[in-house]
Amino acid sequence: MKRLLRFGVATLATLLVGAMLLSIPACNSSDEEQQEQEHPGVPILKCDTEFLSLDSREQLFTLQLTIENPTPGAELSWRCNDDWISAEGLQLPTLQFHIAANPGDERSTVVRLIYPGAPILPIEITQGAQGEVVGPTIRVAKSSYSLSAAEEDISIGYTILNPVEGERLEAESSAAWVHIYAIDQTELSMLIEANESDQERSATLTLRYTGAHAVEIVLKQAAKDAPAPPAEPEFKNFSTNNITTTSATLSCRFDYAGSEAITETGFCYRGPSGSEQEVASTPTTGTKSVTLSNLTAETLYEWYFYAVIGEELYTSTTQSFQTSAESKPVEGKVYRTGWPELCVEDDTNSDYYYAHHITDLKMKGNKARNYTVCYSAKHHCPVWVAAPRHSAYEGSTNRTNAYAKDPQIPSNIQYNSKSTGGGCNKGHMLGSAERTASTTTNKQVFYYTNIAPQYSSGFNTGGGGWNTLEDWMDDQVCADTTYLVIGTYFEKYTDGYGETASPKKISFGDRDDVSCPTMFYIAALRTKKGNTGKSVINCSASELKCAAFVRTHTNNHKGQKVTAREMISIADLEKLTGHKFFVNVPNAPKQSFSASEWGL
Question: Which among 21, 306, 385, 410 would be 20 to 30 A from 288, CA to CA?
């Protein structure tokens, strides 16, 4: 028997993205129905979608096709006038396309599907601008289920692609005889009342998830005394673990309560441009797993589980994972390769001085680092401060207010006192409240090298623009540790809110030659889940999130909540500032970000 193994409609993102981000509406045209009625013998070409909305990254997608009233010997073909789309394979019922990464603005095209005697079927494709990310997608294995008339307890599996932390699936039924009683991360469970009527009945389940298109599932229940529909298999509890540069372990739960023989089961997988490969498993129900090897580093793979039951092929929803990146040489000199927050230190720039502060706080038997600072002799101001954020650094120590010169930085380039000026107060880069585990730890954040002039009336004050951003960032601190680089900028700058600041010198800290920053930023890196127990250095790109949050130094941001308008990618921040961020983390997804992953 020839097995028609196939992937469902899906996207394959670029090498630094670990989740598929494609939202596909159903295709059901009344015009097509009318056409079928008027011309019953004419071939009709149908596709599971006529509109695709994709993100900017390189990807594959698969169209599922059907041809009604086919012409013997006729072949399907396609045409597109844009070279950023190419075909990977055409074998009914699937057509696979490769889409190149979009380096510019949003773009659109039309793929025309051609079958002799049938009307040409256009598929409109829109690809977002560079850096744009499509939000979450709900994926289910089937859009309809046939049930017996008896009362039964059933579960339906689902997958959320590109999930948002803290959000969960919601579901409701159109019928009172369907009782949804549990929704976990992979399935929803419900009790179906017995049908005492002589008529078949149906209900619609509507699944909703923040940022995703709603999905509807139709439940059809047989009439009383009607023969029970054939049992179908269930696939659920998908997971991918032990991901390395060349291997990964796939797992799936397979259940089947019918009487037909299970003759084959296994896993199918493929990379962005490779052929589909399968690994057979024992043809029994239960939890199935397989470890794949000889994979390519830093590559996104798709996989699904299949079962052949009574000569019928069944497949699960498509899952994805990304292999880890190979170890890369650090992009420049760093103080410690094991500190994820560090930036490159530029020895060729005579303006920069660096200090690495170690505290008396013990972690795993050793004294813990507090923060690293890059300080400018030209601006007499910190350039960036890199620090880990974790609850271990917070305790009951009171604020010390121990303002002093940094003993590791030349004294003559620092402030001469804690006096203020230029409408500014003393703005901590790494805050005092973030370092209260010991007196020494808190004293170090009062070094002048950790302090920049910040406007006192609307920026570094209650409800001020900077304080609002700092408070929001507090909620991003996780059990896995959040790594921050808090920085300044001194050239003319306009932020996402249209606020602009220009360079100027002010009197501050008993000096009259201090540069007033035009912009402040926080570059943040952490695991998406926040509680993996893994170092970010050992995580794949799909397990991580990083982004920069940027605000012009102005009093006009007072009361401004944090929004996606102040987010830029770490790669764009590197271009703007000239600094290299998170160089010790090989898989840090610096080229892109998802606002929804940060709750924005």
Answer: 21
Q: Which of 105-119, 288-302, 574-588 has the highest mean pLDDT?
A: 574-588
Q: Higher pLDDT residue, 384 or 363?
A: 384
pLDDT for residue 19: 31
pLDDT, tens digit (0-9, with 9 covering 90-100), for 11-51: 333 322 333 323 333 333 333 333 333 445 688 888 767 77
Distance CA 305, CA 377 (A): 60
DSSP state letter for 421 = B
567 within 8 A of 132, measured Cβ to Cβ = no
Question: Can you tell me whether residue 341 is helix, strand or coil?
Answer: coil
The 8 Å CB, 24+ separation contacts for 225-231 are: 225/149, 225/198, 226/148, 226/149, 226/200, 228/148, 228/149, 228/150, 229/146, 229/147, 229/148, 230/258, 230/260, 231/256, 231/257, 231/258, 231/259, 231/260
pLDDT at 24: 30
Q: How far is CA 584 from CA 302, 340, 357, 536, in A?
A: 28, 5, 18, 9
- How big is the CA angle at 413 (ends 407 and 415), to the nearest 5 degrees? 80
Q: CA angle at residue 287 from 282 to 292, to 5 degrees?
A: 70
Question: What's the rounded Cα separation, in Å, for the pair 313 and 326?
Answer: 37
pTM > 0.70: no
**CB 27, CB 49: distance < 8 Å:** yes
Sheet holding 85-91, edge to edge: 44-47, 59-68, 94-99, 85-91
* Residue-level pLDDT at 89: 63
63-72, 298-307, 398-407, 568-577: range with lowest mean pLDDT: 63-72
Which backbone phi and psi does 466 adopt, to 5 degrees?
A: -75, -40
Secondary structure element (H or E) that encloses residue 466, with its range: helix 465-474
Looking at residue 181, its amino acid is Y
What one-character-per-residue DSSP string does 50-67 give? SEEEE-SS-EEEEEEEEE
The CA distances from residue 387 to 370, 372, 419, 523, 552, in Å, are 7, 7, 26, 11, 22
Range in 344-353, 523-532, 536-545, 579-588 with the lowest mean pLDDT: 536-545
436, 546, 574, 582 alpha-carbon torsion, rounded to 10°? 60
Residue 491: Cβ-neighbour burial (10 angstroms; 0-12, 13-18, 19+): exposed
Residue holding tokens 């072949």? Answer: 75
For the stretch 334-358, pLDDT in tens is 999 889 999 999 988 999 999 999 9
